[in-house]
Write a structure and sequence with these properties.
- The structure holds 2 protein chains of 2 kinds.
- By secondary structure, chain A is mainly alpha-helical.
- Helices cover 65% and strands 1% of the residues of chain A.
- Chain A has 14 helices and 1 strand; from the N terminus they run βαααααααααααααα.
- Chain A has helices spanning 37-42, 44-58, 68-83, 96-118, 120-123, 125-130, 137-145, 147-163, 174-198, 201-215, 228-236, 238-250, 258-283, 286-289; one strand at 25-28.
- Chain A starts with 24 loop residues before the first strand and ends with a helix.
- By secondary structure, chain B is of the alpha/beta class.
- Chain B is 38% helix and 25% strand.
- Chain B contains 8 helices and 9 strands.
- Chain B has helices at 31-40, 76-84, 116-126, 131-145, 160-173, 190-205, 217-223, 241-254, and strands at 12-24, 49-61, 65-69, 91-97, 100-103, 178-182, 209-213, 226-231, 234-240.
- A 6-stranded mixed sheet of chain B has the order 5-6-7-3-8-9, sandwiched between helices. A 3-stranded antiparallel sheet of chain B has the order 2-1-4, with helices on one face.
- In chain B, helix 3 crosses helix 4 and helix 4 (131-145) packs across helix 5 (160-173).
- The radius of gyration of chain B is 20 Å and the shape is globular.
- Chain B starts with 11 loop residues before the first strand and ends with a helix.
- Classes of the chains: A mainly alpha, B alpha/beta.
- Chains A and B meet through strand 1, helix 2, helix 6 and helix 14 of A and helix 2, strand 4, strand 5, helix 3 and helix 4 of B.
C-alpha cells in the first residue's frame, strides 16, 4: 500500500550517504481499493515484527510466561474430561483424550486468533492513524502470534496419540490441515477486524459467539451423539469439517463424516474471498473511521 | 525511472493537484444512521460535511525544505496524512516521488510493554525499513535520543520527553527521500529542539526533501525556504518563506 519499501536501498547504512536512489513515482488519488496480493509478500517483514510483538506482549510482566501456552488447553481438557466423562472411547479404538486434544488444538487456535484479531486494528489505533504501516499486517500478525500455541497443543495431541498407540500414518498430511486452519482463520479475522473499525458491535458479539461456537463444533463430543436437527446445524460450522479432517489425519482408525468436511472446504474458500474483499474495501478509509 | 520536472528545475518530490478532502461530521455509524442509510441508500447525505481541503495545488521539488502554516483546522495535517498514505483524498491527486518518512505525531506506534529497542524495531519496520538497516542504526538512534541506558526498559516507564526524543531519533536516523514533520517539536525541551532543528537542516543540506509543519513561525523560518499558507482548506499564499510568514503573521495579529 505504500512505497516506503527500502529493501533495495540496504546499501545505505546512514542518512549521511548522499547517493539517493531515484525513487519510483506513486500517485495518490481517490480509489475504492488499493491493497494488492503482492503487498502481503512485500510487507512480510512488518508482519513478522508485529507478530513477534503480539506474542511477546501477551506474556510480558507475567511470572509463568509462555507456560500459559500449555496450561490453557490442559485446563480445558480437564473440564472436558469432567463434562464428557461418559464418553470413554468415542469410536472403537479412539481414546477420548486424543480425540478431545485434537479438537482443542484446532479450537484454541481459532479462539485465540479471533480474540486478538477482532480488536487488532483498533488496539493499534495510533499506528493506523499516524503511520503508513500496512493495515492488513495487524490482523495477520494476530493470527501468526497464535501459531506457537498451536504448535504446543498440537504436539501435546500427537504425544497423547503416540502414547495410546493411535497415531495414523496420515499424520504426514497434517501440514495441509494447518494451512487449511490458517486460511480459514485469516479469512474470518480479516472480515471481523475490518468491520470492527466501523462497527464496534463485534467486540461485544465475539466472546458470546465464540462460546456458542465451542458448543456448536465437535470439539469435546463426537458428531454421532447429536440428534439430526442439531447435527445439521453443527455441520454448517466451518470448524466442524476442519476438526473432523484433523482427527482423520492424526488418529488411526478414525472415520470422519465426509459431508461437514466438504461443507467446510467450500465455506473456507468463501470466507477467505469475502474476508479479502471486505478488508481491502474498508482498508482505504480505516484512518478516517477508526 | 520516472523523473518529472517542473519548470525545468530540480525533479519533483511531491506535487498536489486539486486535492480535496471531505469529512462527515457527527457520529458516523450509529444504529439510526445505519438504518436510514439502508433505507435511503444515501445515509451520509444528511450528515453535515466539512471540506478540510478544497482544491489544494502545490509542488515541492527534490531537496526543497517546504513549510506549511495555517491556523487550526486549515488542512495542514490533512495534507501530510494524505502524503504519508494514511488517508486517501476525496478528489484530486498527489504524486509522490520517493520514500516518505512521516512523523505525524510523537510517540505513535509505540507499545508500552515493549522496550525501547523493540519499539524502534517495530516503528522502523512499520515504515518499511529493512531489518539490517534497522539493526545497523540502533545505536545511532539511542545516542541521538540520549537514551543509551534506557533502551532495554519497557517504554511505559519512559517520561513523555523520553518518548518524544525516541520518536525524533527514529525519524532522523533512518534513510528516506522525503521527511515529514507535523507539529512535533512543540513537546520537547529547548536544547533537544535545537538539536532536532539542526538535524532537520542537516537532512536538507544532504539533499533530502523536508516538509515541515509548525505553529512556531521561528522554527518554520529556521528550517524552510518556501512556505505554503493554508486557510480553510485553500492555499492563501505560497512562496519564499519571509514574504509568506510576514503576511501570515500580520493576518493572525489582525484577528
Amino acid at each position: 500500500m505504500t512505497d516506503l519499501d527500502l529493501r533495495e536501498q540496504t546499501a545505505v547504512q546512514s542518512p549521511d550517504v548522499r547517493a539517493l536512489e531515484l525513487p519510483v513515482a506513486r500517485t495518490i488519488r481517490p480509489v475504492k481499493r488499493r491493497l494488492r496480493f503482492s503487498d502481503v509478500f512485500r510487507d512480510a517483514p512488518v508482519v513478522r515484527v508485529l507478530a513477534a510483538r503480539d506474542f511477546k506482549v501477551k506474556y510480558k510482566q507475567s511470572l509463568l510466561g509462555p507456560l500459559w501456552l500449555i496450561f490453557q488447553p490442559l485446563a480445558l481438557l480437564g473440564a472436558f474430561l469432567v463434562a464428557f466423562r461418559g464418553l470413554a472411547d468415542v469410536q472403537s479404538g479412539v481414546p477420548y483424550v486424543v480425540f478431545a486434544l485434537v479438537g482443542l488444538t484446532v479450537w484454541a487456535f481459532f479462539q485465540a486468533s479471533m480474540t486478538m484479531g477482532t480488536a487488532s486494528l483498533i488496539t493499534n489505533i495510533m499506528l493506523v492513524r499516524f503511520t503508513p504501516c500496512p493495515r492488513f499486517a495487524f490482523p495477520l500478525a494476530a493470527v501468526i502470534a497464535s501459531l506457537p500455541a498451536l504448535a504446543v497443543t498440537g504436539l501435546a495431541a500427537l504425544i497423547a496419540a503416540a502414547v495410546n498407540g493411535a497415531v495414523s500414518p496420515r499424520v504426514l498430511l497434517l501440514p495441509l490441515g494447518v494451512v487449511w486452519l490458517f486460511f480459514l482463520t485469516c479469512g474470518v479475522v480479516a472480515l471481523v477486524s475490518s468491520l470492527t473499525v466501523r462497527y464496534r458491535d463485534t467486540l461485544s458479539a465475539m466472546p458470546f459467539l465464540l462460546q456458542v461456537g465451542l458448543f456448536l463444533a465437535p470439539v469435546g463430543y463426537p458428531l454421532a451423539e447429536l440428534s439430526s436437527t442439531v447435527r445439521a446445524l453443527v455441520d454448517l460450522n466451518p470448524l466442524t469439517g476442519l476438526i473432523e479432517a484433523w482427527r482423520w489425519m492424526v488418529i488411526s482408525g478414525y472415520s470422519p463424516s465426509v459431508e461437514p468436511v466438504a461443507i467446510s472446504l467450500v465455506e473456507t474458500g468463501f470466507l477467505v474471498a469475502i474476508g479479502w474483499l471486505v478488508f481491502s474495501r474498508l482498508e482505504t478509509t480505516m484512518a478516517d473511521e477508526i | 525511472m520516472h523523473e518529472s520536472r517542473d519548470n525545468g528545475q530540480r525533479p519533483v518530490s511531491v506535487s498536489s493537484r486539486g486535492l480535496t478532502k471531505r469529512y462527515h461530521l457527527g457520529e458516523l455509524h450509529s444504529l439510526g444512521r445505519t438504518v436510514r442509510h439502508l433505507l435511503r441508500r444515501n445515509g451520509s447525505a444528511d450528515l453535515p460535511t466539512l471540506e478540510a481541503l478544497c482544491g489544494v495545488d502545490f509542488t515541492v521539488q527534490r531537496a526543497d525544505s517546504f513549510g506549511i502554516v495555517g491556523t487550526n483546522g486549515s488542512g495542514k495535517s490533512t495534507v501530510l496524512q494524505i502524503l504519508a498514505g494514511t488517508i486517501l483524498p476525496t478528489g484530486g491527486k498527489m504524486e509522490v516521488h520517493g520514500r516518505v518518512l512521516p512523523l505525524l505525531a510523537v510517540g505513535t506506534g509505540f507499545h508500552p510493554e515493549l522496550t525501547g529497542t523493540e519499539n524502534v524495531r517495530l516503528f522502523a519496520a512499520s515504515l518499511g525499513i529493512p531489518r539490517d538497516v534497522i539493526e545497523s542504526r540502533m545505536d545511532a538512534v539511542a545516542e541521538f535520543a540520549e537514551l543509551e541506558r534506557h533502551m532495554d526498559t519497557p517504554i511505559k516507564r519512559f517520561s513523555s520527553g523520553m518518548l518524544s526524543r525516541l520518536s525524533f531519533a527514529i525519524a532522523m536516523q533512518f534513510p528516506a527521500d522525503i521527511y515529514v514533520f507535523d507539529e512535533v517539536l512543540a513537546v520537547v525541551d529547548g536544547e533537544f529542539q535545537h538539536r532536532c532543528l539542526a538535524e532537520i537542516r542537516n537532512l536538507h543540506a544532504q539533499g533530502r526533501t523536508v516538509i515541515f509543519v509548525s505553529h512556531s513561525l521561528d522554527q518554520v523560518a529556521e528550517v524552510c525556504q518556501r512556505v505554503m499558507w493554508l486557510d480553510g482548506g485553500r492555499v492563501r499564499e505560497l512562496g519564499p518563506t519571509d514574504g509568506v510568514l510576514d503576511d501570515y503573521a500580520r493576518a493572525v495579529a489582525e484577528h
